[in-house]
């Protein structure tokens, strides 16, 4: 399951049955990390998820800032509470990419706000799957 963690909204995605394409699931509205993690675990159980890829907001210069530390803390807690493996994956520019896609599809207003986090989670998971697919092909 791909996760775009946010203070207000957290987007979720999963891979299709072939493991080739990321598909958006939903956006959860934050009511504190305890409820958020419970909601993620519930959705993961419902969908038969066996691990998580959490977007890590690395700075453009490659350093980790306060936001990245917050995501790391969230990932540790999610792994502990779910019992499933959590991978942090560089999410630089995913939100910008999601907004670009929404510009191209003319998605505006409330619909855009509701969809951007789910789309960002799709991009995070797709980038992760593509990265490892490319590495396997090179070996």
Write the layout of secondary structure elements.
Blueprint: E1 2-4, E2 9-15, E3 22-29, H1 33-47, E4 51-56, H2 66-82, E5 85-90, H3 94-104, H4 109-138
Parallel strand pairs: 1-4, 4-5
Antiparallel strand pairs: 1-2, 2-3
Helix pairs in contact: 3-4
Concise synopsis of the structure shown:
The protein is 53% helix and 22% strand. It is an alpha/beta fold and 139 residues long. The protein has one domain (2-138): Nucleotidyltransferase, domain 5.
Overall mean pLDDT score? 85
State the helicity in percent bands.
40-55%
Q: Strand order across the biggest sheet?
A: 3-2-1-4-5
CATH class, named Alpha Beta
Ends apart, CA distance between termini: 25 Å
The secondary structure category is alpha/beta
Q: What's the domain count? A: 1
CATH topology: Nucleotidyltransferase, domain 5
Spell out the CATH superfamily: YqgF/RNase H-like domain
What fraction of the residues are assigned to beta strands by DSSP? 15-25%
Specify Rg, calculated over alpha carbons. 14 Å
The profile of the biggest β sheet is: 5 strands, mixed
> Element order, helices and strands?
EEEHEHEHH
Low-confidence stretches: none
- Write the CATH architecture name: 2-Layer Sandwich
């Amino acid at each position: 399951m791909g996760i775009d963690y946010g203070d207000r909204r957290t987007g979720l995605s999963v891979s299709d049955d072939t493991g080739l394409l990321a598909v958006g699931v939903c956006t959860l509205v934050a009511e504190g990390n305890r409820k958020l993690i419970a909601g993620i675990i519930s959705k993961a159980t419902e969908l038969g998820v066996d691990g998580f890829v959490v977007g890590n907001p690395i700075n453009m210069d490659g350093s980790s800032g306060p936001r990245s530390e917050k995501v790391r803390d969230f990932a540790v807690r999610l792994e502990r509470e779910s019992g499933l493996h959590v991978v942090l994956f560089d999410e630089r520019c995913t939100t910008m990419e999601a907004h670009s896609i929404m510009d191209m599809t003319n998605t505006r207003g409330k619909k855009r706000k509701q969809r951007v986090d789910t789309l960002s989670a799709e991009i995070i998971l797709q980038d992760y799957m593509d990265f490892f697919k490319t590495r396997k092909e090179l070996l």
